[in-house]
Amino acid sequence: MNCDTNPLEAGLDYFIKLNKPADFIGKAALQEIKGKGLKRKLSYLSVRTDDVDPEGNETIWHNGKVVGNTTSGAYSYSSQQSLAFGYLPLELSSVGQQVEVELLGKKYPATVIQEPLVLTEPTRTRLAKKAKA
């Protein structure tokens, strides 16, 4: 999170109660953003690289145009692949969408994947609560 992103884009809406009567810093701004609708969202990417891995702040391309940037990334030993989080326009954020991530001046194919790859206990709890809502 930084001043260029908001918790709704980052998928943290579960932790924000916009309908509670108490006021909090940023509530009006978030209500306005929610009312207008999101333009992008944080997506999980599998990046097919050779010997370089994403670290964050790499450019994401689609059809020759810059469409977003990664926020973080690394090689996942548990899933044996390079993974990254990145902000993509809503129309490019569906699971299976193909994009490219630029690493060290070279573009590598990437696919939007369903997160999470590993279901830890906190993740299972969060997904179960999200399913009930």
Give a verbal description of the structure:
The chain has 133 residues and is α+β, with helices and mostly antiparallel strands. The protein contains two helices and six strands. It has a six-stranded antiparallel barrel. InterPro entries: GcvT/YgfZ/DmdA, GcvT/YgfZ_C, GcvT_C.
Structure annotation, total helices: 2
Which whole number gives the mean pLDDT?
92
Cα(first) to Cα(last) distance is 24 Å
Oligomer: single chain
The helix/strand series, from N terminus to C terminus, equals HEEEEEEH
Structural class: alpha+beta
Instruction: Summarize the main sheet.
Output: 6 strands, antiparallel, barrel
Tell me the strand order in the biggest sheet: 1-4-3-2-5-6
Shape: globular
Poorly predicted regions are: none
Number of strands: 6
Radius of gyration: 16 Å
How helix-rich are the residues, as a percent range? 10-25%
Which band does the percent of strand residues land in?
A: 35-45%
Domain Aminomethyltransferase C-terminal: 40-118
Organism: Ilyodon furcidens
Protein name: Aminomethyltransferase C-terminal domain-containing protein
InterPro entries: GcvT/YgfZ/DmdA (IPR028896), GcvT/YgfZ_C (IPR029043), GcvT_C (IPR013977)
